[in-house]
Amino acid sequence: MTTRENVHQLIDELPEEHLSDALDYLADLHDSGAALSAEAQAAVAEGLDDIRNGRTISLGEFRRTRRL
């Protein structure tokens, strides 16, 4: 039996309550090779720089200012 066949068999045997977890995990594996666009990479770098330099607010403050 191939690895792919083993994976299919395991999925077929999973209880219904675990299928959404399996789907999430497999989707993450599938997307893990996707490269971020240059714009997304720049946004992540900017966010990390903000964190390193203390330019953050609490979740409570964010909610108050955004009326969430």
Molecular structure report:
The mean pLDDT is 89. This protein is mainly α and 68 residues long. The protein folds into 2 domains: 1-34; 36-68, no CATH class. The N and C termini lie far apart (52 Å). 0% of the residues are buried. It is elongated. The chain is built from 4 helices and no strands.
Q: What's the structural blueprint in terms of helices and strands?
A:
Elements (H helix, E strand, L loop, with lengths): L2 H11 L2 H16 L6 H15 L6 H8 L2
In short:
With 68 residues, the chain is mostly helical.
Mean pLDDT, as a whole number? 89
Total separate domains: 2
State the separation between the terminal residues, measured CA to CA.
52 Å
Query: What's the total helix number?
Result: 4
List SSEs in N-to-C order: HHHH
Net shape: elongated
Largest sheet: none
Low-confidence stretches: none
Helix content: over 70%
Strand content: under 5%
Overall strand count: 0
Assembly type of the chains comes to single chain
Briefly note the structural class of the backbone: mainly alpha
Rg estimate, integer Å: 20 Å
